[in-house]
Amino acid sequence: MSLLRRLSPALLVPVAAVSLAGCGINQIPAAEENAKARWADVQNEYQRRADLIPNLVATVKGYASHEKDVLTAVTEARAKATSMNVSVDNPDSMKQFAEAQGRLSMALGRLMSVREQYPQLQADQNFLALQAQLEGTENRITIARRDYNEAVQSYNTLVRTFPNAIGAKIFYGAKPMTPYEATATNAQAAPTVSFDAPDSASQKK
After folding, report:
1. pLDDT-derived band of residue 188, with 50, 70 and 90 as boundaries?
2. 13 pLDDT band (50/70/90 cuts)?
3. 35-41 long-range CB contacts below 8 Å, 24 or more apart?
4. Helix axis angle, 91-113 to 27-63, nearest 10°
5. For residue range 77-106, what is the model confidence (pLDDT) as tens digits?
6. pLDDT per residue over 30-59, tens digit each?
7. Fewest CB within 10 angstroms: 41, 42, 58, 178, which?
8. Under a CB-based contact definition with an 8 Å cutoff, are residues 137 and 192 in contact?
9. pTM for the complete prediction?
10. How far apart are alpha carbons 182 and 138 in whole angstroms?
């Protein structure tokens, strides 16, 4: 009996915490899976963008082969951005990924501005199609990042708020996830992909 008395206080706290957490703890796995799924969407859209770049570079090179620095910068930035392994519960990893994507966005912005100097490139149908695909992808990236951050906020609220925080750690080993924060070079915005080339319409006539 004395043993039970000694054990009771030690058992009371975790049992009480788990009981209190019962109403919300079951939501944690679903919230975690949702956040991971939204992160997969972000990665898929960034990969879609990366897949467009080789054809885009090749098309630009056909008209502006001497723009070597711009073409090389895009190629190298793409290689860096696509070679990273990212963990959503590692802030440093997420920061490095965001920085790499930010550098790629800047390099792409410079590449797209090259067309202003080459009327024939502006009228190239393959280039115009790639521009349209890139613009659509950049928009989807913005939406995917927003949806991921919203999912992370919901998940983190669950695992950080008492009493769920105790149950989350005991039963799931849950860790907070890192929201996607665009770097200063990325500035939460997609690179500008303009379709307002003033001369393109006249050139097509």
Report:
1. very low
2. low
3. 35/88, 35/148, 35/151, 35/152, 35/154, 35/155, 35/177, 36/88, 37/151, 38/144, 38/147, 38/148, 38/150, 38/151, 38/152, 39/88, 39/148, 41/144, 41/147, 41/148
4. 30
5. 999 999 999 999 999 999 999 999 999 999
6. 999 999 999 999 999 999 999 999 999 999
7. 58
8. no
9. 0.79
10. 14
